[in-house]
Amino acid sequence: MSRVVFVQPDGTKQEVEATEGNSVMQAATANLVPGIIGECGGELTCATCHVFVDEAWTGALPARVELEEDMLEVTSEEPTDASRLCCQIQLDSSLDGIVVHVPKTQQ
Ligand code: FES
């Protein structure tokens, strides 16, 4: 199991447990985390799984693929260097405890 910590815009934290191999989006939707919708089921066609990865974890992730870059242009909140579509973050032991921030406008 891997743990994921979701931080809401008001600072509220929710830690959930997820199966390794699942995505951060799947961890969110399985635990009803507010603000992570995952409408397309991880097919990179909706951008409703936008998160800002906590500064301490950005270096632990592989680079974005081109389609993810493209979809980040249509998120509800302006993306930053820390932005990821969390359906593309696959959990493994190296990401145990990853912290991601939910955008305010995705509520
Ligand atoms: S769930 Fe649709 S782009 Fe991530």
Indicate the overall shape.
globular
Strand content: 15-25%
Mean pLDDT equals 96
Structural class by sheet pairing and helices: alpha+beta
- First-residue to last-residue Cα separation: 27 Å
Low-confidence stretches: none
DSSP strand tally: 5
**What's the CATH class label?**
Alpha Beta
Describe this structure in words.
With 107 residues, this protein is α+β, with helices and mostly antiparallel strands. The chain has one domain (2-106): Roll (Ubiquitin-like (UB roll)), CATH 3.10.20.30. It is built from two helices and five strands. It has helices spanning 24-30, 66-71, and strands spanning 2-7, 13-18, 50-53, 83-85, 98-101. A five-stranded mixed beta sheet has the order 2-1-5-3-4, with helices on one face. The longest helix has 7 residues, at 24-30. The chain is globular, with a radius of gyration of 12 Å. FE2/S2 (inorganic) cluster (FES) binds at residues 25, 38-40, 42, 44-49, 71, 85, 87.
Top keywords for this entry?
alpha+beta, 107 residues, 21% strand, five-stranded mixed β-sheet
Helices, strands, pairings?
Elements: E1 2-7, E2 13-18, H1 24-30, E3 50-53, H2 66-71, E4 83-85, E5 98-101
The chain binds FE2/S2 (inorganic) cluster.
Brief overview, please?
The protein is of the alpha+beta class and 107 residues long. 12% of the residues lie in helices and 21% in strands.
